[in-house]
Amino acid sequence: MAKSNPSKSAKKPDMPSINIGIPESQRAAIAQGLSRLLAETYTLYLTTHNFHWNVTGPMFNTLHTMFMGQYTEMWNAVDPIAERIRALGFHAPGSYAEFSKLSTLADAPANPPKALAMVELLAKGHEAIARTAREVFDVVDSANDQPSADILTQRMDIHEKTAWMLRALLED
């Protein structure tokens, strides 16, 4: 059995060994991908919550309510993602600094945009998270990691549907 390279591992040195049928190198790759997913989900959660607070205009009530449902769903999603990273034997990222390094999504604009620009930004964010989940799925599938695959499948479904619903608001 080959020794793992501690410099490439986020595993805590004093953590007991883990034998769940997935080698450490694959667990590390999965944890890294799930960390990206967690960072992007949290970033979009925060942007959506920001837009919920700051939306104005004739669609205020509809968007205010829709955004609340969306940020609530994402808030409930971050814990299972982080807990899966922990179950794989790695630390889950949990700071704004870590999230900003891991996420491909930009932070919420300092000045809230108009309502439809908010909708467009959120649609693109949901599409980006669906792409990230799909990329990570290949790693998870090759490791035969069904619990992570289940999380990713759920996230793809939710983010793709949410992006579709947001895009529908942009049609004439």
TrEMBL record:
Belongs to the Dps family. Pfam families: Ferritin. InterPro entries: DPS_DNA-bd (IPR002177), DPS_DNA-bd_CS (IPR023188), Ferritin-like (IPR012347), Ferritin-like_SF (IPR009078), Ferritin_DPS_dom (IPR008331). The gene is dps. This is DNA starvation/stationary phase protection protein. Residues 33-172 form the Ferritin/DPS domain.
